[in-house]
Amino acid sequence: MKKDSKNSMSLNRREFLKSGSGIALFIGASGLFPVLVSCSENKKINEQLEKHRVSAWVKLSEDGELIIYNPASEMGQGSMTSLPLIFAEEMDADWSKVRVEFSPQESDMYGSPGWSPDTKMMFTVGSRTTNSYFSTMRKAGAQARFILLNSAAQHWNVPVAELTSSASVITHEKTGKEISYGELVPFLVLPDAIPDFSEEQLKQVKDFRLIGKTVPRTEIPAKVDGTAQFAIDVRLPNMVYGVLERGNLHGSKPSLLNEPEILELEGVIKIVPFDYAIGIIANNLELALKAKSLLKIDWSTSQATGFNSEEIYDDYEKIANRTEKGSIVSEKGDFSNSLKSASKIYTADFKNDYVYHAQLEPLNSVIQVSEDLQHAEVWVGSQQGFDTKLGVPGVLGIPPENVNVHLQFLGGGFGRRSMSDFVEECAVLAKEVAPKPVKLIWTREDDLRYGTYRPQSLQRITAAVDADGTIAGFSHVVVGDGGNLVASGVDNSHYAIKNQLAEWRETTHGIRLKHWRSVGHGPNKFAIESMIDEIAFDQKIDPVVLRRNLMKEAPKALATLEKVVEISNWNAPLPEGRAKGISFVEHGSLGTGVCEISVDRNTGKIKVHHFWIALDAGIIVQPDNVKAQMEGGIMMGISSVLSERISIVNGQIQQSNFNDYSLLRMEDIPDSIEISLLESTNHPEGVGETATPMVGGAIANAFLKLTGKHLRHMPFTPERVLEALRS
Question: Can you give the pTM of this predicted structure?
Answer without folding.
Answer: 0.93
